[in-house]
Amino acid sequence: MYGALTLIAATLIAAPPSGRPPAGPLERYEPRIYDFTFEVTITTISPFDLSQQRGYRLVDAPIVMPVIFQGTYSTVSSESLRAQLWLGGREDLGLEKRGRLDTGYPFHTQLAVLPVENFTGMSLRWLVGYRVQVWSSRLTNEAAAAAVPWPREWPDEVRDGLRPQLFIESDDPMFARQVERVSEGRLRLVTPYLAAKDLVRYCVNEIRVSGNGVNRGNLGVLRGLKVAGARQTATTGLGGPNDLVCVCVAMLRAAGIPARVVIGVQTVSKAQRRTRAGHHNTPNFVSWAEFYLPDVGWIPFDPVAMRGKGIRNRDVRQPWPEFGSMKNLNRRIPLAYHFIPPTTVESPQNPAVWGWDPRPGGDPSSEQIIKFKVTSRGRGVEE
Length: 383
Known about the structure:
Helices cover 19% and strands 35% of the residues. The protein folds into two domains: 3-135 and 339-379, no CATH class; 139-210 and 224-334, C8orf32 fold (Roll), CATH 3.10.620. The chain has nine helices and 19 strands. α4 (173-183) crosses α7, α5 (192-206) packs antiparallel against α7 (241-254) and α6 (230-236) packs across α7 (241-254). The chain has 383 residues and is of the alpha+beta class.
């Protein structure tokens, strides 16, 4: 399906972006271009039985997939957006007329909607694909970032980064107490950039991380992300990579600093595929975070990659690895700012950035198989 989504996507360029290009001491560089496809197969585990209403009996069941058309470090070509849907192995050619893009969600996220008009059966498959350009990031002047003061108020376009969301329960009083403890009650006596570094360091030091953050079933089949959330992880002190990111974002939001999780796909170079053959070294889910600094933009950081890099006792006025400067950010394709789309949908298994609403004919025993296809198109367009 190219017609409906592509036509609508072309009108979204004037919509508020989810992230403007960085400014001042923050730069993006070394753009790379990828052709990317996100494919999902949904299968019911229950035996098909019409008399017991097992299997799928879907009517106007929407499948939704977020698309970040313009992020701080990524741009999706609206002309390249495409989608396809197969019902029981047969392509749904009517999707071209029914597909649409919905707007008005947090961080100005757009949702590609693929409605399943009428289907009875055991499995269905869909994909969304596009061409995307991504950049690396670097912070060229630590002192300049550290000198940016607290604003009187945050811009409207970043205020979603101050609100709680699924898995980021920043309104839980525990996070306000931790902010007070880390800052020793003097949060506003330092600038937001320095406050953010102190809070992120606390999270990296306090949370013990285990696992790789994804669920792979038999034979390494990708089933989705493992996420417990910020509240549970902060309470137990133990979580996966995605949970550490959630705790960092919750702490920053509790401190009044707009922040968000970014869920994307980590690409794999040819060299990596050769050196780790047989170890599932294929494109995989990855998460990191961003916080907003006035007149600078969304500053990326990866708390998982920061572990073991000597930040425990490092001065907050010195550069930190994977904080602001992320050399390999141009090998990550951002997909979403929510683990499940911020609307009335659910995930059939582990969260995986997309969602659907199969009611009343859905099957709670559904499982999903996720596949990524990433083709590098080489160096992107320099600014």
